[in-house]
Write a structure and sequence with these properties.
alpha/beta, 6 helices, binds D-ribose, globular, 46% helix, five-stranded parallel β-sheet
């Protein structure tokens, strides 16, 4: 599985750790930056990851900022993206199963690295539920038209 990952300055430290964690799990990791914890604007990095997922360069995206909220708002502006801001493990599985989320946004300031690893594990290992969920996701995507 190929994962595109990025952060802003608030998520930088965990982005570095999470990229290593993903590699240790055998994922292909496309690190879209930043390369330091210097102050940056999160929409710039959300766009890089969202575009990777939208154009098929990556299967899924991971974005880390202070809360994960700004990253989710920005990523969801890109057509084809269903980004979910997740701070607990069970919601990560539900975001995949019910919503077919293709980008997860995480909090680098309020959620520990250990907890974010569990959240990522659930996100990566849960398939889309299809069935009754498919029509609803189709309706979400129709809102882009
Ligand atoms: C940066 O201070 C902070 O606003 C950002 O990381 C994020 O939490 C925005 O949603």
């Amino acid at each position: 599985m190929r994962i595109s990952i990025a952060s802003d300055h608030a998520g930088f430290e965990q982005k570095q750790q999470l990229a290593e964690y993903l590699e240790s799990k055998g994922c292909g990791v496309l690190d879209r930056g930043p390369d330091s914890d210097a102050r940056v604007d999160y929409p710039d990095f959300a766009a890089l990851v969202a575009n990777d997922v939208a154009d098929g360069s990556a299967d899924l995206g991971v974005l880390v900022c202070g809360t994960g909220i700004g990253m989710a708002i920005a990523a969801n502006k890109v057509h084809g993206i269903r980004a979910a801001n997740i701070v607990r493990e069970d919601f990560a599985a539900l975001a995949r199963e019910h919503n077919d989320a293709n980008v997860i946004t995480l909090s680098g300031r309020f959620v520990t690295f250990e907890e974010n690893c569990k959240i990522l594990d659930a996100f990566l290992s849960t398939p889309f539920g299809d069935g009754r969920h498919a029509d609803r996701v189709d309706k979400i995507m129709a809102l882009e038209a």
